[in-house]
Amino acid sequence: MTHRSREELEAGLAEVRERIARAADRSGRDPRDVTLVAVTKTVPGEVVGAAYDAGMRDFGENYAKELAAKRDAAPSARWHYIGALQSHTANRVADLADVVHSASPGRALERLARRAGTNGRVIPVLIQVDEAERGQGVRPGEAAAAVDAVARLEGVEPVGLMSIPPPPEEPEDSRPFFARLRDLRDDLRKRVESVRELSMGMSLDYEIAIEEGATMVRVGTALFGPRPGPERPSD
User: Fold this and answer.
1) pLDDT tens, 35-80?
2) Full pLDDT tens readout for the chain, 235 residues
3) What is the largest CA-CA distance in the chain?
4) What are the extents of the domains in the chain?
5) Other C-beta atoms within 10 Å of 68: how many?
6) Can you tell me the distance from the alpha carbon of 23 to that of 208, in angstroms, rounded to the nearest whole number?
7) Which of 194, 204, 201, 231 has the alpha carbon at shortest distance from 216?
8) Rounded distance, CA 112 to CA 103, Å?
């Protein structure tokens, strides 16, 4: 990928924030209620540092190794782990991540929670809901049991839901998936009040996601430029 200059990063950030503000306005929401997570997959550490200097404060990484390498470039930022949570890297994620978007009950999450508890931390986690039947996360009908299971673990707290719809041909294609996830979140919040967040929407469809209630959008290409190969599922 071609790395953007500081000026290009500032311009990209300003444009994305303006689009977030307009989408929030269309849905009667406060844009300050939407967290922009800058996805740094394939982005080198020096560009992460420049992005922080340009005003970005939340970053998302897909791999524990990359998270470890890049966190030092923006140590004061909030780092979101957005990749598949795996048992062999769960301890490292627990040491490095401030938020985890890809939680589902199982050994990996248990290891993450145990390590966080040992470190005296409680990590906010979002349950990944497999709306697109990718085999990652829990099925929508299993989400309630998943939230209950996560709530019983020490070291983590369930704070919301995350999903990755199928790659859309048009942004509107994602709207039904986002609306269903919002409705599911609303139902689950009646069981566990802390379940408030909705991590949904990427560069192609984050405005639609905000219109449907997203509180976190994961944006990479619109900030850092095109990546080689397919943009989904990490954007």
Assistant:
1) 999 999 999 999 999 999 999 999 999 999 999 999 999 999 999 9
2) 457 888 899 999 999 999 999 999 999 999 999 999 999 999 999 999 999 999 999 999 999 999 999 999 999 999 999 999 999 999 999 999 999 999 999 999 999 999 999 999 999 999 999 998 888 899 999 999 999 999 999 999 999 999 999 999 999 999 999 999 999 999 999 989 999 999 999 999 999 999 999 999 999 999 998 876 554 555 7
3) 47
4) 6-221
5) 15
6) 7
7) 201
8) 10
State the CB neighbour count (10 A cutoff) for residue 64: 22
Q: Is the peptide bond before 233 cis (omega within 30 degrees of 0)?
A: yes
Please state, in angstroms and rounded to a whole number, the distance separating the CA atoms of residues 51 and 77.
Answer: 11
Q: Are 20 and 56 in contact (CB under 8 A)?
A: no
Pair of tokens at residue 178: 């986002």
Residue carrying structure tokens 């990209």: 12
In the chain, the amino acid numbered 33 is D
What is the end-to-end Cα distance of the chain in Å, rounded?
Answer: 13
Angle formed at CA 51 by CA 49 and CA 55, multiple of 5 degrees = 115
Residues 6+ apart with CB under 8 A from 223: 9, 12, 13, 16, 38, 39, 51, 56, 203
Phi and psi at 220, nearest 5°, equal -120, -65
Which of 1.10.40.30, 3.50.50.60, 3.10.310.40, 3.20.20.10 is the CATH number of 6-221? 3.20.20.10
> pLDDT tens-digit profile of 10-27?
999 999 999 999 999 999
Question: Which H or E run contains 38?
Answer: strand 35-39
